[in-house]
Amino acid sequence: MSRVVVVTGATSGIGRAAAREFAGRGDRLVLAARSPTSLAEVRRECRTAGADRVRTVPTDVTDADALDALADTAVREFGRIDVWVHTAAVMAYGRFEEIPAEVFDQVVRTDLLGAAGVVRVALRRFRAAGGGTLILTGSVLGHVTAPYMSGYVTSKWGLQGLVRSVQQEARDLPGVHVCLVTPGSVDTPVYQRAANYLGRAGRPPLPITTPQRVARAVARLADRPRREVSVGRVNLLMRGGFTLLPGVYDALVGPLMRRGGLTGQPVAPHDGVVFSPDPAGAAVRGGWLPELSDLLRRAGAPTGRAATAVAAGAAVAAGTALAVGTALAAGGAARRRRR
Ligand SMILES: NC(=O)c1ccc[n+]([C@@H]2O[C@H](COP(=O)([O-])OP(=O)(O)OC[C@H]3O[C@@H](n4cnc5c(N)ncnc54)[C@H](OP(=O)(O)O)[C@@H]3O)[C@@H](O)[C@H]2O)c1
């Protein structure tokens, strides 16, 4: 049966891919983001992909009244909300003290407080209706940390805590599900659209997955809700390193971030889409995968799954090398102290 699916953050990346995925299943869609121009484009794509009916509602998730109005529109138009997928987020690169306070605050306002606003509105509606599935988008950066992305990391750690709390509170509501999808690197425009006070543009570190793959995981959660689903081949490895070898992780993450998570392209300070949307930069894909596979192909290295395996292998090898190096250095220092 056709479901009523609300998507907040539907105009770009994972949200846009999820909107198309649900459209392909013939669901009725209520699509929201800030840009009316991009929403109109996504509406056309979803109709072409097979959506039964599509309603767009320009919405800023930092505005609690707008979120209420969005839910009202969905219920008025389609009678109920079955699934609410929340993907809206923005990013800012820079050392914490060099990011303007208002930019940091707006990242947290959007990524954490905006998500909290969605949780509040969705759960109130679901509790009253006796059912519904809320799917939030966290990140592997809600389990580990990385430098130069403090507002985003702070928000994703906060979201992780919020989601676990409301999952526990909703245990008395058997028809209500709160799910979290936690991707690693995904080929979306979020990196180009991020604010930047670092002087070098950001990019997704390897291995990179597609927004379509994350969208399929989201659709599977709508069919069979689960507490959390991780999408990314090295997410578990990163979490293991972060938890079990924090000293090694901290020594490794800075150099890896500078090599793998930033481009050499210089950028003047700018606030990206943190405060207002840029319809020209909105798309499902960010264009990172072809670029990287081209580079690998030109270098004669394997691509696709093989490249992922190489990247994961390199990460493990680098981690192991550093772990052994750290242990040896610590042993040497201890011996010197004993002498
Ligand atoms: N890409 C990755 O590598 C990656 C990895 C892990 C997790 N994630 C998570 O996946 C989710 C989607 O990210 P993405 O990579 O797909 O980003 P994206 O391509 O930049 O899309 C972000 C979406 O959020 C919307 N948005 C931003 N601020 C908003 C606001 N104040 N109110 C309403 N909508 C707003 C944007 O539309 P408008 O600009 O039109 O408002 C856009 O539709 C995020 O939660 C992100 O943290 C991404």
From TrEMBL:
Domain of life: Bacteria
SUPFAM superfamilies (alphabetical): NAD(P)-binding Rossmann-fold domains
Family matches, as Pfam families: adh_short
Annotated keywords: Membrane, Oxidoreductase, Transmembrane, Transmembrane helix
Residue stretches making up the Ketoreductase domain: 3-171
Transmembrane segments: 306-330
Similarity comment: Belongs to the short-chain dehydrogenases/reductases (SDR) family.
Name of the protein in its database record: SDR family NAD(P)-dependent oxidoreductase
Source organism: Micromonospora antibiotica
